[in-house]
What does this fold into?
Amino acid sequence: MRRTIRLRLRFLSGVLLFFALLLIARLYFLQVVHGEEYVLKAERQYASGAGELYDRGSIYFTRKDGTLISAATLLTGFTLALNPSLLEDAEAAYAALSKIISLPRDDFFARAAKTDDPYEELLRHVSEEDGKAMAALAIPGVVVARERWRVYPADARGAQSVGFTAFGADDAYRGRYGLERYYDDLLDRTGGVFGNFFAELFTSVESVVVDARRARAGDLLTGVEPVVAERLANVLAEVHAAYASAETGGIIMDAKTGTIVALDVLPSFDPNHLSEGNPEYFGNPLVEHVYEFGSIMKPLTMAAGLDAGVITSASRYTDEGCVHLNTSTFCNFDGKARGTVPVQEILSQSLNVGAAHIAGLLGHERMRSYFTALGFGKETGIDLPNETHGITDNLESPRDIEYATAAFGQGIAVTPVEMIRALGALANGGEIVTPRIGTAVRLESGIVKHFALAPAERIFKEAVVEETTRMLVTVVDTALAHGTLSIPEMSVAAKTGTAQIPGPSGGYYEDRYFHSFFGYFPAYDPRYIILLYTREPKGVQYASETLSNPFMDLAHFLISYYAIPPDRAPL
It folds into this structure.
């Protein structure tokens, strides 16, 4: 009997303890997690009846020390409006309000005269201080209502990738571009205060790694480093202005994980002032536009040749300056023959004929297989909306000319993200990774869940990548600006690219070029890979003129900012 009573008491105690824990957890959510929300509700004594305050998760950049910096968040203030039917003295009301905030007189009285309309909006996004001061006047017919609105502290920096919220054809206020759209379900908080109460309560028992598209509502954390992003933005702006380019962009990526630490493109817009922006620039060329990148494709062709065993780094070939294939002729950039030279010169002198030579040794099927494995012609899976894929139809052709030109980056067109993902195989021991911006979700409980990394895919043997890297380091140490830009204590692997731009008739413009530059460092154990490009720069022909110094500026900055130790003794 006593044993039975003890068991019942223990069971009852357990039940009471369970409910006590639930109550404590609920109080935590009320006072801590959602405390600010209830404070805002309590302050809405001057509300216009517009309904619940707008709520949405924030997007954060992450500094190198882990500090979070807002890239998209909410500000709280007031809307100022009139109920003309209740306004007793318009002149007195205007005089009182004008002492606090500037109001267009004509507009005020025009709205005050609409006595058949119970709500005439005067101003939105009124500051906290001004809103409270106006509310304290308690003027009949003057409505001072709480409101929240989306703000973007980075302004135009990275705007195409962060995106913005706006009304659309569906009359819903949602994320429309960039991360705001891709992660709209995660950021949206229209489900109510306690929608995730029990899920949040027991969230700690779940995996600490989640699928990015299935994460619960919260704040989005990204790998974008705001100091690095600002430096990239400034460098791109200088290039864009100096050469009056049609478009200039860049990406800095963690070579091993695919995490994007900075990305930007110009022309841009300020998401805080959409009405002043050009909708043409709302989309993101880094994932939505394709380009023929030119000679930065040659290192991939070289790696494919080495991997397939059709060449070695000691191989030589005869360079005749121009080659005629399938009724078409292509040449080196200067049309000059080099005679019999080492394959190193294909990269050092950027020789089109040499790249085509490797394509010929590979053959159609093998070359197509390597380029397909590198992801050309497929979406990368980056967490940005509207991603398109490259145009690689030429690699299905039976004609030798298509493979020859693809080998030096003409005739096939890919997105910048596609390109950095493929080149990333050279910076990651022969494996390609999936580029990503978002890294984690911070739930409303404060718990952070990291997104799972997509598995890497091996394309080249490690020894092949090391040999290709050695050749690219030689390019920087001896050929790029005659070696004057090399860093004595740091190995850097890099290559320029200059491509002709296709014309509307099927040929190429004679005076319009697409410049690109990529590189990674420390070359034999890379931390970062950088891709830069500028489209139709004016007054220059070669990418070595436009992008070499900007790349090295970024490399020096990253080495210093992240205190990357030297990997070789000064020469």
Notes: The mean pLDDT is 90. The CA atoms of residues 82 and 142 lie 5 Å apart.
